[in-house]
Amino acid sequence: MILSTRPVAKRPTPPPADEPPKPTPPTPTAPSQPNSVTLGPRDRVIGQVYIEGDLRVAGVVEGEVEVTGDVEIDEMAKVKASLSGQDVNIRGHVNGSVVARKRLIVGRSGSLIGDVRVARLVIQDGARFSGKVAMGAAALEAPAKAAEAPAQAQPAVVVLPEEPPELPAPVEAAILPQVSADGKDGKDGKDGKAKGKVPPPKGKAKAR
Amino acid sequence: METQEAVAESAPMENHNQSDAKRDGQKKFTLGPNDSLEGKLTYDGHMTVDGGRAEGEFRIGGNIEIGNGTVVKALLEGSNVTIKGEVEGRTTARDKLTLGKSAKLSGDVQVRRLQIEDGATLNGYVRMGDFEHQAGS
User: Fold this and answer.
1) CB nearest to A130's CB, from B96, B116, B126
2) What ipTM did this prediction achieve?
3) How many Å apart are CA A119 and CA A71, to the nearest integer?
4) Which of residues 16-75 of B touch A (CB under 8 A)?
5) Integer CA distances (angstroms), A133 to A81, A137, B13, in order
6) Residue A66: pLDDT band by 50, 70, 90 thresholds?
7) What residues have CB less than 8 Å from B116, skipping those under 6 apart?
8) Contact B124 A124 (CB under 8 A)
9) Which of B115, B121, B122 is the closest to A124 by Cβ?
10) A133 and chain B: CB distance < 8 Å anywhere?
């Protein structure tokens, strides 16, 4: 049944195969070519995700997602995560806070439960939404930094890059407590190795 | 603009010729640019504020429409609430709340359905769902 709506989806992909195309290693310079990540309907990501470029989700995502480009949540997607991106377009289910540096759109099939900080907001008739709305440049400025800070503190980690397929289980286990603690606990334990690996993403996020 | 002018209570309709016009069987009154309403209003028709000044607490059985360029500081409650102007205060729509392009709403919102057009500004908590609790404050 899932077959019907899968635009870019890859059928025979094991989840990890999604990630390789976008190695986001220590290049704090502007990404030269636009990067786009798609998580198909059967893909699942649990943990912290940082993507330089766009993200499209049709599957399950839990944790924390930071995207320098646009985020698109497809109809069948189930997201339990904080999202941040430029344009955020929600047509599926999202439970978590959302930061849209440009515009958040909750489509008529979308449902969003969580607080929202946006520059602009569109909610289509039929969409479900509950949460606090803070809107405008001012709303984004100050708190956005606060929110970004913890994300930078332990940026790397995560399910992303070229982890061999045997890893997923341990990775998940390692990451979960950190996510639930919203970064505070995880910081101490993880930071050491995380920091060396990936530089703070902030510069580019701004530049774009 | 024209400050502390009228204190209208519940029946500001006599001032307006448009008022009490029967539209699909429901009463309706319009607050024009030179009108002002301050206080508590409970009314079972439709209410339109188009220009003018309105402050207080309006519980409307029908629909509420806040026109472009209007500034309202009030608790609003109505079936369908359409805002194109500026509203400060809690807003309850028993059915649907629509924020037009030019709308500015600051205050908490309880609605069954919600539509926000691009360009509108909203600051506050949004609660959506059928109404378990309402009224009260």
Assistant:
1) B126
2) 0.77
3) 15
4) none
5) 17, 13, 36
6) very high
7) A121, A122, A123, B98, B99, B122
8) no
9) B115
10) yes
